[in-house]
Amino acid sequence: MKLKLGIPKGSLQNSTIELFKKAGFNIHIHERSYRPSIDDDEIECLLIRSQEIPKYVEKGVLDVGLAGKDWIVESRADVIEVAELMYSKQGFSKIKIVLAVPESSEIKKISDLSGKSIATEMVNITEDYLKKNKIKADVEFSWGATEIKTPDLVDAIVDLTETGNSLRANKLRVLDTIMESTTRLMTNKKAYADDWKKNKINEIAMLLKGALNSQDMVGLKMNVKKVDLNNIISKLPALKNPTVSELVDKDWVALDTIIREQTVRKLLPELKKIGATGIVEYPLNKIIF
After folding, report:
1. What is the pLDDT of residue 89?
2. How far does CA 22 lie from the centroid of its chain?
3. What is the CATH number of the domain that holds 246?
4. How far apart (Å, rounded) are the C-alpha atoms in residues 139 and 142?
5. CB of 67 closer than 8 Å to CB of 184
6. Spans in the chain with pLDDT lower than 50
7. Is 175 in the same domain as 208?
């Protein structure tokens, strides 16, 4: 049995491969090849543009794939969204699809777009938005570099943004946010009706979500005197109650917990002062709830 997996080529490519690595799958992209190798004999990878993955999943060319929710909506693909995965090109947050105009534009509100021209890769999303707001404007498909098309070629653009840096660099201001998007692991009805494929897809989803759950988290181990235990536990912003284990010396216990990495530098000196010793910080690959 083989599961055909679509890996998004382009902006999500590197972050997707890193996420799979943390989840336990090593994917290698070979030069000039669109068939990456993976260290799982039950998976066959194909490298495909994010924009095309939803349709290829819907048609059954792929059993499962990853792409942004925006491309599912844009392509009108009928797919099953197995998991929402909060990661993008540069971080672990949502991206926004925004309507933007030049900073100097006289367009101040969306109703001012009536009769104007808009460039975008997301024609369907844009036309749906205009229809919803009862605005008639000319929407043209953009092959990329959309930010540079105003004001000389079009009056406004609809584009995705993660940090807003590109918009600011091109002297654009956001008029409205059309939608927010996250990466989705998706499959089709035929693949999900197959017990073996469904089980394999759900396993992949669990491991990917586990890898994302561990982002910015670390484990802490330490030895603590029993008399100091309650005081130390009160200082720990634990994921859940910490694990406490008996040591050979009955006056001491071992304490194990999970916390956010950004809190460690302030927490460790305080723990040391109130009696913790033998403190060990260790990285995490996955947290499965």
Report:
1. 74
2. 14
3. 3.30.70.120
4. 9
5. yes
6. none
7. no
